[in-house]
Amino acid sequence: MEKVTLKAVGYRRVSMREQVDGHSLDAQEKNIRDYAKSQGWQVIEIYTDAGISAKKDSFRPDLARMMQDAEAGKFDVIVVDKIDRFYRHLAGLLTALDHLRNIGISFASVQERLDFTSPWGKLMLTVLGILAEIYLDNLRQETIKGKRQRAREGLWNGLPPYGYCRGLCAECKEPNGKGYCPEYGSPNKSDGKRLMLYPVDSQVVKLVFDWYLEEEMSDALITERLNSYVLTLPGGV
After folding, report:
1. Are residues 179 and 85 both part of a single domain?
2. Residue 118: HSE in the Cβ half-sphere, 13 Å Cα cutoff
3. Predicted pLDDT of residue 20
4. Mean pLDDT score of the chain
5. Is residue 18 very low, low, confident or very high in pLDDT (cuts 50, 70, 90)?
């Protein structure tokens, strides 16, 4: 039976500091191509994110493009020089590897000698997928627990709800701050850990509730009325 040649792609990444410290893009690409050649794979593309960290929540354009191409089935295996070029944090790594497993894309790392194209490698990838599921389920439970505790303490989750702010007037960076809020630039009214009524938007919230309860207005009528309403704050602002 004729051996099928796998189509491989490489992924390389450096931050600005790492480029100086010797983790150059050229060195990564050479290692990727040499490894793929030793395995008899055809390298069809090298994806590159230069000057970008692999920290949690950082967006890497070429990584996103590569994962989209993986879902489209454009190649068979991803090769990196080192695992940390792909992900630095465990949750992201396990989730990505599990997703690749589910869509039938293999993964290999040159320096760590990880090759998930072999039978034993596929078994290891399955185990990592189970670990990812356990890890993410535990993380989900801890997140829910944390949100409930914040609610018990009277704190909010995520961004402040409409009509409230952190009260950090002197250091305000909100889009509706300068030129909108009359308190912008004044001394802080809170340590940022407790919510304060936002001078403008809190008045809007009160109006909405009053119109809904006292005048029995519908959502559409309230919206129409708000769009033509001119709000005057105490003091004529």
Report:
1. no
2. 9
3. 44
4. 82
5. low
pTM: 0.55
Tens of pLDDT, residues 195-215: 888 888 888 888 888 888 888
Nearest Cα to Cα of residue 6 among 129, 127, 118: 118
Q: Which two tokens stand for residue 236?
A: 């004529």
Determine the pLDDT at residue 235: 55
Sequence-distant (6+) residues with CB within 8 A of 97 are 107, 116, 125, 128, 129, 132
Sign of CA dihedral 10, 14, 20, 23: negative
Are 22 and 133 within one domain? yes
Report the 10 Å Cβ neighbour count for 88: 15
- Alpha-carbon torsion (107, 112, 113, 114), positive or negative: negative
Contact status, residue 64 vs residue 31, Cβ threshold 8 Å: no
CA distance 4 to 136: 35
Domain-ending residue, one of 123, 139, 155: 139
Pull the structure tokens for residue 95: 């989730």
Query: How many structural domains compose the chain?
Result: 2
Where are the extended beta strands (E) located within 127-227? Answer: 164-165, 196-197
